[in-house]
Design a protein that fits this description.
Elements (H helix, E strand, L loop, with lengths): L12 H24 L77 E6 L9 H5 L1 E3 L4 E3 L13 H18 L3 E4 L11 H10 L4 E8 L9 E5 L3 E2 L2 E2 L4 H19 L13 E4 L3 H4 L5 E8 L3 H7 L2 H20 L1
Parallel strand pairs: 1-4, 1-5, 5-10, 6-9
Antiparallel strand pairs: 2-3, 6-10, 7-8
Length: 331
């Protein structure tokens, strides 16, 4: 009514009750008609898409972001290698539909492969000089348990460099479905000794093993080189079965490291080929799996030091390492 008064409740009750179902029915019919005309329903959220195949950049983290681009030493326990390695087989509910498991590891020809990464030295070796000075058997000689490693003239240590590059490489290798085993992750007071480093790879039955280092040669000596094991058959050392595959691994690493980093092979060792052979390194002598050392550059040369201290270059080094190892594993 125009005056706003409330109509008497007794007026036409039957017709008022019949109006409600009629309105509801009309609304339902209208909805049916819209569906019949092909109107799209709101999309439901689905599972995240896996990273593009072949990508080596960790998802959500641009290359060269900074010192912490690599895995953290004390992060989420799920991001660490367990005592028995990364789990690569599990219930289907643990896997997505894009060819990766729940940890982001790619299912493919490299799933189930094991790689030993040995970050050379240990950041806290300097605090345990007596312990690392003790002698251990390397098969054909006795040598120190470990050393502190070298550093740039500005004080950036080899041990910090190797651990950072190793963590970056681990992230990339895991994305290829590979189980990665570390000799140390900054989680030990010192070491391990060189003989134990070799044994960790042996116990893991690694398909490939790499010890990451940086050299301490004089200024003007630049570039990287890969050290292969020579033939040693003495005491507890017998490299006869691994010298061939280790040389193959070294060849793959040299080629991919040049391509990924733009660095040249060393100008002071290896005749410009980036390759050297030694029989005095316990980490190689005592290995029963294919293994090499990678000297990523010379920390005492200003030009090389500028690269080694650059997080973006260290990410490139990790890519070169990853591509070299995966190329070797794929044969």
């Amino acid at each position: 009514m125009s005056n706003g008064s409330t109509p008497p409740t007794s007026r036409r009750p039957a017709r008022a009750l019949l109006a409600v179902p009629a309105v509801l029915a009309a609304l339902c019919c209208a909805g049916c008609g819209a569906a019949g005309q092909g109107t799209a329903s709101p999309a439901r959220p689905g599972p995240e898409r896996p990273a593009a195949a072949g990508s080596h950049t960790p998802a959500g983290r641009p290359a060269g972001q900074g010192e912490d681009d690599g895995d953290k030493p004390h992060g989420d326990p799920s991001d660490r290698d367990k005592p028995h390695g990364d789990q690569t087989h599990g219930d289907q509910s643990d896997r997505d539909k894009g060819g990766r498991d729940k940890e982001g590891r790619r299912r493919g020809p490299l799933q189930g492969k094991v790689v030993l990464i040995d970050p050379g030295h240990n950041p806290t070796n300097r605090d345990h000089t007596a312990e690392i000075a003790r002698q251990v058997d390397v098969g054909n000689a006795r040598k120190e348990c470990d050393t502190t490693g070298t550093s740039t003239n500005a004080g950036y240590s080899e041990a910090s460099f190797t651990l950072d590059v190793a963590r970056r490489a681990r992230t990339l290798l895991r994305k290829e479905g590979i189980k990665v085993v570390f000799t140390q992750d900054g989680d030990r007071p010192y070491g391990p000794c060189v003989d134990e480093r070799a044994e960790i790879g042996n116990a893991a039955h690694a398909d490939a093993a790499l010890s990451i280092h940086a050299d301490g040669a004089g200024a003007g000596n630049r570039g990287f080189h890969v050290i292969r094991p020579g033939v040693v058959h003495s005491g507890g050392a017998d490299t006869r079965k691994i010298t061939g595959p280790s040389r193959d691994l070294a060849d793959h690493l040299v080629g991919r490291f040049v391509a990924a980093t733009g660095s040249a092979p060393a100008n002071y060792i290896g005749a410009g080929k980036g390759l050297d052979t030694r029989t005095d390194l316990g980490g190689l002598n005592l290995s029963r799996v294919p293994k090499v050392f990678l000297e990523c550059g010379n920390m005492r040369d200003a030009q090389d030091a500028a690269r080694l201290t650059d997080p973006a270059w260290r990410q490139k080094a990790a890519v070169g390492i990853t591509e070299g190892i995966t190329g070797f594993l794929k044969g």
